[in-house]
Here is the input.
Amino acid sequence: MDNKSIIKNMRADMQKGFRLLLDAYQEKLYWHLRRLLGSHDDASDALQETFIRIYRNFDSFKGDASALTSWIFRIATNEAMRMIERRPQPTAQIDDPTVQPLADEYVDYSDLEAVKLQNAILALPPKQRAVFNMRYYDELSYQEIADAVDTSVSAVKVNYHLAKEKIVNAIKS
Here is the structure.
């Protein structure tokens, strides 16, 4: 289902439109939140809160179909940042690949490079981690990411570049 149809349905019949939105975004947002928060339980809690916020605030959404993805990712990212602030996550040890990262259930521990990559991502500052994940995994454009994290495209590019450098350096060590 495309964003234009989701918006049209949500404005005509909120229940039906919301089910369409859930179908389209639930898995994407879960994995986005999971990569940011590191655990299934935190990601599930943040996902539930994200959809509650979307449902309650959809009337305030004034954008078009191209802005829906950014708006939804912004809500999800903000919820993840709130959780990180409320319950600081222990940071991963970049230099010790034997330490299991927080997101342990979807990492193949027999693949040392995957473990190092996951540790490096989890050790990034929250905003850099969000920008990196949205660009690398979620394949959002720089503009969509800028809209989602409420910053400029150039700031997103800088954060992404810094995150990549930190990850590469962590994997090399």
